[in-house]
Protein 1
Amino acid sequence: MQELGEIFGLAIGLIVSADENLLEIIFLSLRVSLSAVLISCLMGMPLGAMLGMTRFRGHAAVLVLLNALMGLPPVVVGLVVYMLLSNAGPMGWLQLLYTPTAMIIAQTILITPIVAALTRQVIESLHSEYAEQFRSMCVSARTAVATLLWDARVSLLTVALAGFGRAIAEVGAVMIVGGNIIHLTRVMTTAIALETSKGNLDLALALGIVLFLLALGINAVVMSLRSDTTRYGYA
């Protein structure tokens, strides 16, 4: 077995030399995760805003369900999406199984409840400040949602970053629906698992370093945004 120092040196060499296979895996990971986050924000933020603004019969039950969905086991989501997209499933005719699209669908299902729940918390707090003014001006629900989402944009950016961090680190669901196919559906997390099992520790470590740096960067941005929010009094 290679010495740890030698493996680490080879991993750094792959990153510095911009190894073609390494870049391909990284770019696919970013493409899938960013697409899933964008879709999740488009669906989850308006939903979270409506839940934060309104009260209706069964509101508490909906919140309990939403919070429960935040902890969805990735392998269960992967299994459900697999069954839907397989040839025997209701959406099998789309031929999406083992494609990046299937991976985006699985990640979107996992991230949307997180985005919606965190957005609800932000908007619920902000709405209490605006509620009286909205009522006096007879503002429509659509306009109120748009106003609150815009005013809370800094905080909602941290919500989106939290969703991205969850997506980029996902392995179970994307492994099931993507199949970890080289040059097609192999992303960083699935590649790390495969290369480690094959003994290719230099490539696995290189991918692990990149993944760690991404996670570090995301957390740094989130902390910076939260600091600015507190300092300047933004939502």
Protein 2
Amino acid sequence: MPDNLTPAQRSYCMSRIKGKDTGLEVQVRSELHKKGMRYRKHVKELPGKPDIVFCKARVVVFIDGDFWHGYRYPTWENKLSNFWKKKISKTRERDTRNATILRKMGWTVIRLWQHNIKSDFEGCIARIARTVTRKE
């Protein structure tokens, strides 16, 4: 299926998509803060600029949208145009590369998917809290 927008229109649309401080990120950070957990956000010095960083515990959290980061991508990639296939494939490769580098640097990587946060918010918060507490 071809893209129905011109390259200039597509570029404009893509430039309007928020890359950080999304609703899910704010919701997760707010709950962590309520629990007394302190963190840094979007640390540029770390690969992939993790959404949430617990420096002392060396734990990073990525909050990924199901579409943008390709949750179960092989099951639906054939429904996309080449533009989206290329874009999502590159994102997945970059995510894998960054997580590998972070682990080699001694960081624990937690990846939370959009659907997991929406279906089990408390479980996701508990997972982060358990990991950070164990590492401190």
Protein 3
Amino acid sequence: MTHSDTRADFRCETSDGWFVSGLAKAAELGPGPCVLSPLTATLPPGLADMACALPIGDANGQLLAELRSGRPDRWVLAGVFGCDPFRRVDDLVAELCRVGVAAVTNWPTIGLLSGELGSALQHSGFSYGRELELLARSRERGMYVAAVVSTGEQLEQARTCGPDMLIVTPGLAREDAAAMAQQGRRLGEELIPAARSALPDADVRLYLHPLFGAALEPLRSQVEGVVRHAGDHLPE
């Protein structure tokens, strides 16, 4: 299979997408975009957001093990942790190609982390830019690329890897409902319109984070579709 054939193999509809733990669940829930993330899809939403910063498992190890168990469906994106301290970007991309991955995204992402923790990770070499490097290398190998973004700065950075899809996320959930409502308004008034302007040909999706409740529902009309956490009202 050529690189161009690999990228063309990805197809998804505008129906809801999901973060899923396994290929079988992706087959059940498709054909909306399913982000395969065995580690984070089994965690509560708030903890899943922090998975990249906590010593709770090998996200890429679990991902690769699941991918080796069978070929992904046409609507599956491999959720890859781009700042993996134990695997080189080139090695990760080569293995993804070997197991037949057609689409990738940077999930889990350290892009959700700010403040002292975000600065400490950045100082240690764990940066959002490293995640985008993985996406860029994946695109060079012919894969469909989806960039997870939560700020305008990240959107500008993500443009450099030419993403086919943007997954807009509100960021970390807070205890203050008013603060989360403000985050939702920021997405609707700033980030989603900016994404439309910066990448008019990209498929824009919204992570309908369950902890944000109704704060994100009005934004559904501004995007092609949403991506939900696996624990958010899964069908029987």
Protein 4
Amino acid sequence: MIDFEPHYRRVEQLIYAWARAIDEDRVEHIAELLFDDGRYTVKSRFNHDRGLPLAVIDAQSAAQLRDRILSMRKANVYQPQHYRHMLSGVHIASGDDNTFEVTHNFLIVRTMDLSGDMKIFATGQCHDLIVLTPEGAKFKERLFLFDSRVVETLMVIPL
């Protein structure tokens, strides 16, 4: 049995780096945390549990994620808002010497910049495939499964 403890902090810091980049409006940075051929998916738990393919976001490469972020910055029209991530229960479920399957819970509060209104925007569980490289930890896959069946409004900012 592999002892995951020596790697736990690096895995946890990668997960926190993603959340901080979004919370601090440095969204472009998240694409750097994903392998070039990595995948970032946001899907309802309802669809996932039933094997239904529909996802709210499904970027099948870092380049697709960069395009989505560029569109968010340049083309999309939406009310200014920001997120605050609360993460818990980071657990390395399995792995080998440098690749780990990781789960954690998330709660994201959305604050509307103009009104100051705050609301829980998404809750759920994230399933990650994380690879430790000599250059640092990176995501091979990120699957955010949100608990609600619907998204209240346009999900323009990645989770």
